[in-house]
Specification:
Helix content: over 70%
Shape: elongated
């Protein structure tokens, strides 16, 4: 065998390389022998414009090779003849082989004939078996498919849409491409989208019904949740009251400690199962069902429409919330505010449950955005409604409900500070309205007062009018019927003030402000100082026309002073601060003006009465020959009246008030006596008249001393000091050494109440008995009285000083 590798052939060298044409021919022959590319030679021929030369060289090369071929053929001719001889010798062998093969074929066909017929029968039977197996497999698939279709129809008829969709998905994924029946396959391809569309319509209708139902449920849910918050607040109040009672008992008696087991109600009524699982979409006691929502969301997830349903749900709920914001102009807000806020509260309670249990149906950010919108709208509504309200009670009712709304929704994690800020902003307006209401109520109470002591026939009346305001002066329950020292004005005003305190604390409580006692105290001070004090002052100045009325008002003021202590303690207790802190911050009695006016009015009326008796002083004989032994007529009348007054006043007036009034009246009597001696009605008087006035003052001092059993010895002595001006004047006029008045030490000790100008004027009226008319005839030659001389010296010295 010749080698496949071609040897490189070298063209014979030209004898003479001078000729350029022969050199080109040589190069072309060499390239052809070596199987090289002839492209360069072709391009060169055409470039030079001589392709005929190239053709000539090629023809020359071809002619040179024909001779070589002839030489090769001549060299192998003998071998070819020998090969032909070999083939002729083999022809006979082939003929014998052919006859042998023919015989073998005949034998083989005779033997294989039956086998071929059996093989044909086998092949036909196998084809039949395969066809039967394929038919059975097709039947089994159709049976399974029919079973799935039957189950899908059953689930559809039972509204079990999820299982129906799972059957449809199974048919579509496992059978529809492998179904042997094209008719059945076309039917399935047509019905499956219709089934999905039908399920989507049905589930959307159920969801729409749920949207309608959940609005009603939300309102009831909000009312129930807010009611539970109110109940919890009431339990806290009851517990706080028990704590106050225990603290009070501990304060009164450290040994008497009261212990009680408080059972806390852990069930807040909101249902805890929903926090960990679906609980079939319900919420315990609150009982709202989210099954339809969960089902619709699950079906849409199965249909691959999760995002579309999520958006559809959010938009519908947002529209519902916007609808809930509408405030009816036909119904007063006071009547509709509970429904308004309960609807919003229920909406967000539902959304909180959906957020926690639906598995991504709504995002937390979406709920927060809805809440911000709701808070903004509620604040706007509150601002508008509060600005229109002119009744404190209406404002308080709405505030209480809003605060309960805040407590309810804060448990679900919603921030309610903007709502509380709106309530705080209207704190001043509420209290101004409350003060206005109290001013009106107090005016009506005072106008209806009959200035009579209050009669209580039953113990419950005593508890309601005395004990409830801690007005009692003794822990011993009196016998009934009981006549109180105050009139009906006192408990009525106490009830108004207590109601004011409770309303103020109720408004300030649960509003986000922990310490509000100072605010309550500020408005309580205004109520007492401006409203109650002003009303009592007006009553005193315009409606009192008698001593008994003035005495009753003064007695009422004393009881109201004790009531004011109760008011501040009550405010402190309701505000949750220790009583010691409240007592530490107490100021003076807030009804000072009314109390002083009442006592001043009582004193003025008593002075007017006394002045009526003091007119009898005109009957005094100022130049009497002998001093009266039992006092002058006017002082006896005055003392009788004062004793009658004291016997009446001691039943209703406290000792300290009675002392102040008597002290003022006695001081007035003393001033009247001195004024009479100083006045123009008395031109002159003698020592006997002075001694008579001395007896009068002694009777008045005795009256003051007699009050020691009613007041105290110190108070009785203070009553006597009210007569100090008259007493010191009489002592000076009866003194043997009146010139001692000029001694600063003696004057400060014994005559500190006297005005030297009055002393001069009165002393000049004093006449010695020898100075009587016609006395100069009988007394001629008598020595001048040294007392008179000393008095004249005193007058002269005082005139020099003045």
């Amino acid at each position: 065998m010749q080698s496949s590798k071609m040897r490189r052939k070298v063209a014979p060298a030209a004898a003479d390389g001078d000729s350029s044409e022969k050199f080109d021919q040589l190069l072309l022959s060499s390239a052809i022998c070596n199987n090289e590319d002839l492209g360069p030679f072709v391009r060169k021929a055409f470039t030079s414009g001589k392709p005929e030369t190239l053709l000539h060289h090629l023809r020359h090369f071809a002619r040179s090779k024909e001779s070589e071929i002839e030489e090769v053929c001549k060299a192998h001719y003998q071998d070819f003849i020998m090969a032909v001889d070999d083939l002729r010798s083999l022809l006979s062998d082939v003929d014998s082989l052919k006859s042998s093969l023919s015989n073998s074929n005949i034998k083989l066909q005779s033997v294989a004939g039956p086998l071929l017929s059996s093989l044909d029968a086998f092949v036909e039977a196998r084809n039949i078996s395969q066809n039967v197996s394929l038919a059975l497999e097709s039947v089994r698939k159709c049976v399974k498919l029919a079973d799935l279709c039957s189950r899908a129809n059953l689930h559809l008829s039972n509204n079990n849409f999820y299982m129906a969709l799972k059957c449809v998905d199974s048919i579509e994924g496992e059978f529809i491409d492998k179904t042997p029946s094209s008719t059945l396959r076309k039917m399935l391809e047509k019905q499956i989208p219709e089934i999905r569309s039908y399920i989507e319509r049905k589930i959307n209708k159920e969801f729409g019904d749920w949207l309608v139902e959940i609005r009603i449920v939300s309102r009831n849910l909000g009312q129930l949740a807010i009611g539970q918050a109110s109940s919890a607040r009431q339990r806290e109040e009851e517990l706080r009251i028990k704590q106050r009672q225990a603290e009070e008992q501990t304060r009164l008696s450290l040994r008497d400690c009261v212990y009680a087991l408080e059972e806390e109600d852990d069930d807040d009524g909101l249902g805890d199962q929903g926090k960990d699982g679906y609980n079939n979409g319900s919420s315990g006691v609150l009982g709202f069902d989210l099954t339809s929502l969960y089902r619709a969301y699950h079906i849409h997830q199965t249909l691959g429409l999760e995002d579309r349903f999520r958006q559809y749900y959010f938009e519908n709920r947002k529209l519902q919330l916007t609808s809930d914001f509408q405030v009816s102009s036909m119904t007063p807000f006071l009547e509709s505010h509970q429904t308004f806020f309960a609807q919003i509260a229920g909406f967000f309670i539902v959304e909180d449950r959906v957020l926690r249990t639906s598995g991504g149906l709504i995002l937390k950010m979406d709920v927060e955005n809805l809440w911000e919108t709701a808070v903004s709208k509620m604040c706007s509504v509150l601002e508008d409604q509060f600005s229109r309200m002119q009744t404190a009670n209406h404002l308080l009712l709405i505030k209480d409900y809003v605060s309960l709304l805040g407590v309810t929704l804060r448990r679900y994690g919603y921030p309610v500070d903007p709502l509380l800020d709106v309530l705080s902003k209207h704190r001043d307006k509420y209290h101004e309205l409350l003060l206005s209401d109290c001013r009106k109520q107090i005016g009506e109470v005072l106008a209806a007062d009959k200035f009579e002591q209050m009669l209580m026939k039953k113990e419950y009346e005593y508890s309601m009018n005395v004990l409830s305001f801690q007005l009692q002066t003794s822990d011993i329950t009196p016998a009934f019927p009981f006549v109180a020292p105050f009139s009906s004005t006192v408990p009525d005003c106490c009830r108004i003030v207590r109601s004011f305190i409770e309303d103020s604390v109720s408004f300030m409580s649960y509003g986000g402000q922990l310490e509000f006692y100072d605010v309550v105290k500020k408005y309580l001070d205004r109520l007492l100082n401006e409203v109650l004090d002003g009303a009592l002052l007006k009553l005193t100045n315009t409606s009192i026309h008698g001593v008994s009325q003035a005495m009753q008002v003064a007695a009422n003021m004393v009881v109201l002073e004790r009531a004011c202590d109760f008011f501040f303690r009550h405010a402190a207790q309701l505000s949750g601060i220790p009583l010691r802190m409240a007592e530490r911050g107490r100021r003076q009695f807030p009804l000072n003006n009314a109390r002083d006016a009442a006592e001043e009015m009582l004193s003025g009326l008593l002075k007017a009465k006394v002045d009526g008796f003091m007119t009898l002083i005109e009957n005094v004989n100022w130049m009497a020959d002998e001093p009266p032994q039992s006092g002058n007529e006017f002082v006896n009348e005055v003392i009788i009246y004062l004793e009658t007054l004291v016997s009446t006043a001691q039943q209703i007036l406290p000792a300290k008030v009675l002392k102040r009034v008597l002290q003022d009246v006695l001081s007035h009597i003393s001033e009247k006596i001195v004024g009479t001696l100083l006045g123009d009605s008395v031109k002159r008087f003698n020592v006997n008249a002075v001694m008579g006035i001395d007896v009068d003052i002694r009777l008045l001092e005795s009256f003051a001393d007699n009050q020691a059993s009613l007041l105290s010895e110190a108070d009785a002595n203070q009553l006597k000091t009210a007569l100090s001006e008259g007493r010191q004047l009489i002592n000076l006029l009866l003194s043997n050494h009146p010139e001692n008045f000029l001694n600063p030490v003696i004057r400060e000790r014994s005559y500190n109440a006297l005005d030297y100008r009055k002393v001069i004027a009165i002393s000049e009226k004093l006449r010695d008995p020898s100075d009587r008319l016609f006395g100069t005839f009988g007394g001629r030659g008598l020595k001048q009285n040294p007392k008179k001389k000393s008095l004249d010296t005193l007058i002269k010295r005082l005139r020099d000083v003045s």
